[in-house]
Design goal:
The chain is an alpha+beta fold. It is about 65% helix and about 10% strand. The protein has a domain at about 35-120: Winged helix-like DNA-binding domain superfamily/Winged helix DNA-binding domain (Arc Repressor Mutant, subunit A), CATH 1.10.10. The two termini are about 25 Å apart.
């Protein structure tokens, strides 16, 4: 196999990006837990459901968005349901699946968490980018995230 080894610039960029992939989510997670008691996955579920019509969405679709297996999200959703943040109902279009719905308590918790989370995202990330850098980051992130799996 002929390997196209990384140039020095490529390696430095890759290592910096890997460091960012570890440091930023860890710091945002610490802030979220401290400020609201939520995990990043909790926040993703709550915020996604809050944006859907009637605050409901099929588990299979949310699992695909989060790039989780149905089983993993189902177990996580059961823990969130036990805390009163979400509820489940049968999916009329998928006998094996369910619809997740955001409870009033879940919406209240999200409503309290969101301002703190936005401050964290701003201070740890967005405030360090110029408008041009932000536009470039959005374009690059979209292009790479949309590559086929």
């Amino acid at each position: 196999m002929d390997t196209a080894w990384l140039s020095e610039d490529e390696e430095q960029a890759w290592r910096a990006f890997r460091r960012l992939l570890i440091a930023l989510p860890a710091r945002l997670s610490q802030d979220l837990a401290r400020d609201s008691g939520l995990s990043p996955a909790d926040y993703e579920v709550l915020s996604t459901l809050s944006e859907k019509p009637n605050r409901r969405w099929a588990l299979k679709d949310l699992a695909a968005k989060m790039e989780w297996s149905r089983s993993r999200l189902s177990h996580h959703a059961a823990r969130m349901q036990a805390r009163g943040l979400i509820d489940k109902e049968p999916d009329p279009q998928d006998a094996r699946g369910c619809i997740l719905l955001l409870t009033d308590e879940g919406f209240r918790v999200l409503d309290e968490a969101a301002p703190h989370h936005v401050v964290s995202v701003r201070t740890r990330f967005l405030d360090h980018l110029s408008p041009d850098e932000l536009a470039a980051l959005r374009e690059l992130s979209t292009r790479i995230a949309d590559l086929p799996g």
